[in-house]
Amino acid sequence: MAVLVTGGLGYVGSHSVKQLVERGEDVIVLDNLLFGHKEAACGSRVVIGDIGDRDLLRSLFSNNRIDAVMHFAALADVPESVADPRKYYDVNISRSLAMLDVMLEHDVKMMIFSSSAATFGEPKVVPIPEDHPKDPTNPYGRSKLMLEEILREYERAYGLRAISLRYFNASGADPSGEIGEDHTPEHHLVPIVIQVALGQREKVNVHGTDWPTRDGTCVRDYVHVTDLAQAHLRGLDALRNGHATAEYNLGNGSGYTVMEVIRTVEEVTKRKINSVSAERRPGDPAVLVASSEKIMRDLGWKPQFPELRTIIETAWKWHSTHPNGYSR
């Protein structure tokens, strides 16, 4: 049987594809190349197209023995979602519904869904458990929560089972250095700081230095992308063994401050990082950390690379050898 991976040429998707291929799965990647890179195929079969193209989807499901879908394809820029919510509900909801329709037409009833910690909104309890109140503060987070709820209803109505994985800050790169993070523009802290180390940026802005944390800067949960990929494979195995629909958080359980990230990049690269204090951003919580106890208990997932230094070392290996990403 084959696994269809939507958005499988993107950052987390490609790392999951690599692990699937390495363990002998037949992997078909569907990607529209809006954010993906052909160089990240990792030996999979690649189809260029959109998840909203029903005819293309019908062809894929008709001509391949697909038993499950890993669904990464989505828009994920929070400010853009606020400025243009229609775009986000179209891509993240309407086109996902088209794919679900075609899955049901072909009796494919297993999905691993790449969700987000943005489903929670402002945290009331830290670390955040799965049953924390859901109150997304932007259309991106709402679109992820809406699809989670749709998947719950699809299990009740049609028997389509799904595992939704909510993760926080995907970071690092495959230890081999073959694939990594390549976004344009870049919004994630770790690659931004590394770009300063590479001389590609003048500075990194630190948004607030008076937060109620150990050094006054925000605490965030950084999870190695290889560990995230492993969780997707564990979810797939669980569904194949009859696991019911469920949602799981993926985090390291502790979190690191912005300054800890900057200092660790300095230690790993042996280069001074120019950091500049900037205004707090509206809506930024002081601490955002997940509890991953549920997935550890239920699926036996445990991060292999929980230490920030290891995350930074693998990211540096990728960025220093691919300073211009896949088009180096």
CATH superfamily of the largest domain: NAD(P)-binding Rossmann-like Domain
Which fold name corresponds to the CATH topology of the largest domain?
A: Rossmann fold
Instruction: Work out the radius of gyration.
Output: 19 Å
* Total strand segments: 14
Q: Which architecture of the largest domain would the CATH scheme give at its second level?
A: 3-Layer(aba) Sandwich
The SSE order reads: EHEEHEHHEHEEHEEEHEEHEEHH
Strand content: 15-25%
Please, what is the average pLDDT? 95
Helix-strand layout with pairing:
Layout (H helix, E strand, L loop, with lengths): L1 E5 L4 H12 L3 E6 L13 E4 L5 H10 L2 E6 L6 H6 L1 H21 L4 E7 L22 H20 L2 E7 L1 E3 L17 H9 L6 E4 L11 E2 L1 E3 H16 L5 E5 L5 E2 H12 L5 E4 L8 E2 L4 H7 L8 H14 L7
Parallel strand pairs: 1-2, 1-4, 2-3, 4-5, 5-6, 6-11, 7-10, 8-13, 9-14
Antiparallel strand pairs: 9-12
Helix pairs in contact: 1-7, 2-4, 4-5, 6-8, 6-10, 8-10
